[in-house]
Amino acid sequence: MSTLLAKIQIHTGQEEEFEEVMAYMYRQTHATEDGVLRYEYWRGSEPGFYYCLLSFKDALTFWRHQASDHHEGEMARFARCIADLDLEVIDPVQQASPLPATEEGVVSEADSDAVKAAADAYPIAIKAWWSAHRKT
Prior knowledge:
ABM_dom; 4-stranded antiparallel beta sheet; Dimeric_a/b-barrel; single chain; 6 helices; Alpha-Beta Plaits; ABM domain-containing protein; 38% helix
């Protein structure tokens, strides 16, 4: 499983377009992708800040999401809205979240160049300190 948290700052005045893109992405992701555990957006407390919780059955499923036609098809609109984006790999705390632990993934030779590029752009790395706190 792979879980990520995105903190997104958008350009002033782009709220309507950003929320339209995110609503489309939410619908398409949940309707067409297997292995999506969480894919949700929230407005932050500060103007122009949003959050996205993304959780997939594994890293490869996340990378395939990044390379999907609907994701890539909206990238130009998405990029116009974004002033800054911080995408952080996170690890659910067992017994305090229903999501399983985050694990690293592997791309195979059979995967598309777009999936391989997504894996290079968005590595899923397990932090050493997490292991000491995971319940087995």
